[in-house]
Design a protein that fits this description.
mainly alpha; 20 helices; 0% strand
C-alpha cells in the first residue's frame, strides 16, 4: 500500500507546481516525466484488474482464428495476434499498449486542459494514470482522439475512429452521439430537467427492455447479446442495491452544479468547455437511465463521456483569484481525490496489492 501512497504523493507534488506560474513548456516536461513513470509501471507490471483474463487470452491462443473466436472483441484479438506472431512476449504487448494509452491521455490533457498539472492529478486519482489499463482504456484513448475531430467537424474520421474503438470494446458505440451533442447550445434549465427525467426514467426501466432493443441492433448482434447477458444478468444483483446506486448518483452529480455555473462564464476563456460539459451531462444521463439494469452496464455506457471531467473540473481554479483560497480548495480537492483513489484500491485488493513488477521485487 505504501507504493500507491508514494505514487500519489509524487503526482500530487507535480500537480502542486501548477501554482508556481511555470511556463507551459515546463509543465509539458513534468507531464512527460511522470508519463514515463506510468508507462514503466504499466508496461512491466505483472498483476492488475482482469489480469488472468488477458494473460490467458494472449498465451493460450495462437492463430488469428483462435483470437477471433475467443469471447473478446476482434480488434483487441487482432492486436494480440500481431504481437504474439512477431514477438510472442506478453510484457511487450503491455509496454506497447501502455505507450499508446498513456501518451494519448497526456496529449489530451496537454491540448485541452487549462491547468494540465491539476488535470494530471485528477486523471491519476480517478483512472490510476492508466497503469492498470484494460482494453476499455485503449478504446477510450481512441475516443479521446475522436473528440479532436468532433471539434474540427470531421464526421468521417470521427465515425472511423469510433468504429475502430468498438472492435476493441463494443461499448464504444455509446459514444457515437457525441459528435452531435458537443456543439449544442443547451439552456441550463433544460439540462437540469434532462438529468431529473433520466433519473426518474432510469428507476422505471426494466432489464427486459435491453433484450428487446438488441433485436434492432444490426452491428455484431451476437456479440452485443453476449455483452447484455454478461453485464446485466450474470453480475451479482448486489450491483444494483440501493446504497451503491445512491452513491453512484451522488458521485456523478457532485461537480455538475459547479460545471453548470461555469458553463456560460467559460465561453470567452475556452470555447470547447461547453462541449466537454455537454458530453459529461449526456454521459451521466446514460448512467442514470441504465443504472437500474446494473452499474457495470451503466458505467461502460458513460465511461467515454465522463473522462472529460479531467478537463472541466480543474478549470474551476480559473475563477479563484486569491492564492490562499486556491490552496485551500486545492487541498480539499486533493483529499477528495485521495479518498476516491484509496477506495478504488481497497475495493479490489486482490488485483492491486501488492504491485508486482517483472524487473524488480516491488
Amino acid at each position: 500500500m505504501n507504493f500507491y501512497i508514494g505514487l500519489y504523493i509524487i503526482t500530487w507534488i507535480i500537480s502542486f507546481f501548477e501554482f508556481f506560474n511555470l511556463k507551459r513548456k515546463n509543465k509539458i516536461i513534468l507531464l512527460i516525466f511522470i508519463g514515463c513513470i506510468y508507462i514503466f509501471l504499466g508496461g512491466f507490471r505483472w498483476n492488475g484488474n482482469d489480469w488472468y483474463v488477458y494473460y490467458d487470452f494472449f498465451t493460450r491462443n495462437y492463430t488469428l482464428d483462435d483470437f477471433w473466436n475467443a469471447p473478446i472483441d476482434k480488434g483487441f484479438g487482432l492486436i494480440n495476434y500481431l504481437v504474439k506472431s512477431i514477438f510472442d512476449e506478453y510484457t511487450l504487448l503491455l509496454i506497447l499498449l501502455a505507450i499508446v494509452i498513456i501518451v494519448v491521455k497526456l496529449w489530451f490533457i496537454k491540448k485541452y486542459a487549462i491547468f494540465p498539472l491539476i488535470s494530471l492529478l485528477y486523471w491519476y486519482a480517478t483512472y490510476f494514470g492508466d497503469i492498470y489499463f484494460i482494453r476499455q482504456d485503449l478504446a477510450a484513448s481512441i475516443a479521446l482522439i475522436s473528440i479532436y475531430f468532433i471539434i474540427k467537424r470531421n464526421l468521417k474520421v470521427f465515425i472511423l475512429l469510433i468504429g475502430i474503438a468498438s472492435t476493441i470494446q463494443i461499448s464504444s458505440i455509446f459514444f457515437l452521439p457525441a459528435y452531435w451533442i458537443f456543439n449544442k447550445q443547451i439552456k441550463i434549465k433544460y439540462i437540469c430537467w434532462g438529468l431529473i427525467i433520466s433519473i426518474i426514467l432510469g428507476r422505471l426501466i426494466d432489464v427486459s427492455i435491453l433484450g428487446s432493443l438488441q433485436n434492432y441492433i444490426f452491428i455484431d448482434q451476437e456479440r452485443i447479446a453476449s455483452k447484455v447477458d454478461l453485464y446485466v444478468y450474470d453480475y451479482d444483483m448486489n450491483d444494483i442495491e440501493a446504497l451503491p446506486l445512491f452513491l453512484g448518483y451522488c458521485r456523478r452529480l457532485l461537480f455538475i452544479p459547479i460545471e453548470l455555473w461555469m458553463i456560460n462564464r467559460m465561453e470567452k476563456i475556452d470555447k470547447n468547455y461547453r462541449g466537454f460539459v455537454n458530453l459529461i451531462i449526456f454521459g451521466n444521463m446514460l448512467y442514470f437511465l441504465l443504472a437500474n439494469m446494473g452499474s457495470t452496464f451503466a458505467v461502460r455506457a458513460n465511461y467515454f463521456y465522463v473522462m472529460c471531467e479531467m478537463i472541466t473540473i480543474p478549470a474551476i481554479f480559473i475563477f479563484i483569484k486569491k492564492m490562499w483560497v486556491k490552496l485551500i480548495v486545492f487541498f480539499i480537492f486533493s483529499i477528495y481525490l485521495y479518498l476516491k483513489y484509496i477506495f478504488f484500491i481497497l475495493n479490489k485488493p486482490e488485483a492491486f496489492i501488492p504491485y508486482i513488477n517483472v524487473l524488480f521485487n516491488m
